[in-house]
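Aim 2 progress update. The chain analyzed this quarter is reproduced below.
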Amino acid sequence: MLRLSVQETIERYRRHTKSETSTTFRSVEQNMQHLKQEAANMMKKIELLEAAKRKFLGEGLVSGSIEELQRIEQQLERSLINVRARKLQVFMEQIQQLKENEKTLIDENARLSEKHGIHLGIATKDQNENQPQYCAESSPSSDVETELFIGLPDTRTRRLSHQV
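Predicted structure tokens:
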């Protein structure tokens, strides 16, 4: 009787695994069919997108109707508006970043000038459009003589010899 029970258990196990195997096989087969359909659909979408891309690049427009050409033109205009808006946004972000950098540099310059005892005057907003003006004290190393010479270099040397 024990032997029969073990034999029945083995038989039930075989039937169970056989049905699971066939169910799993059917499931895998259905999944494969679904994936093949998805791949075919994706290939069609890719072909349509490539055709649209070629048209946006101006290729293959010979066979296009007036309505299709107008749709493409409108889409390109909308895209151009989006590109210009993004460009403006990037410029504004860069300007804001540069203003922050300017403020940081002005603050650092003022701190360094204060540390070294140099008077730093900053023009008001009306004067020179917020550009800093430096009024540093004269030192022997910063004294520079400048003169304007007009003419060829050899005439400059003659004038210098006449002036001395």
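The CA atoms of residues 124 and 130 lie 6 Å apart. The helical segments are 2-56, 66-115, 153-163. These observations will guide the mutagenesis experiments scheduled for the next reporting period.
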